[in-house]
Amino acid sequence: MQKSFRIKPSWPFLALLIICSLMGITQIQGAPLKEKDINLAFVLLPKPRLPKAEEIARAFDHFATTKGQSLLPKGPQASERKDIEVLEFELRPGGSAFVALMPMPVPNGEAEDAARFSVSAVGTGWKLPKHSAHAIVTLRDVNTASLVDTLSLFTSLLAAVTETSEAVGVYWGEAGATHDPRFFLSTAEDHDVSSRIMLWTGVSVAHEKDGRLSLLSTGMKQLNLPDLLLIAPRSAGNAALGAFFDFLSYSAEFGKPLPEGDTIGRTADERLPIHYVQSPIDPKVKVWRVELK
Fold it and tell me: What is the pTM of this model?
């Protein structure tokens, strides 16, 4: 069975409400505000200090995946709370972004708990250093062709904030993981889905009763896709992890749930059956299960 962990951390949604109230956002496109309407993550900081908006905008150019994408500072925003600094940006060709400084760590150890689900911690033992503040990074009303493009755009924004700050971690609640900032930046430099998928989802590693490895993704709901449960021989090690993210990348680019009974493989000749089963951490949720030989 999988290790248990907090399926729905509380701080991401509370932080969303905070920043929306600061910005006076109660509706989006005529509909009541919903968590899914805004991409949100946290850059964890050793000190309560934001980089300059112009520095973030310049760094964004390095990580942007499409020609013509740019981030335009709109200046610091007034806030009812004097201890919260807010930077606002216009995104071209469409959308807006906010970076808000919270002079406190993420509550309840949520960021620390999520560190073990980042692939940057698998096999390295990386743990989140102490942080005393965090930047809430949000993206909304973007003009993109797909959810994959939206997540990639948000990744570029997060990387820009991370690179220009003294970040000690990147807590992406909807991915279920807190990433090592060095890993985040090096991965975000590659614009391909096959690399960035490692930032969009965490991986929970456990063992089946027969000793085989069990790998479960934790962030594919952001793409309206089911998570993957990969079962692999205990000796598979890094090969299983590579196959895990290759399969997730294929699913993301396919853009819809892979059909029950279809096959997937690491080579043209490998045909591993796909079956839908209950998630080992939530019986109300279906995941697609693949067994490596």
Answer: 0.88
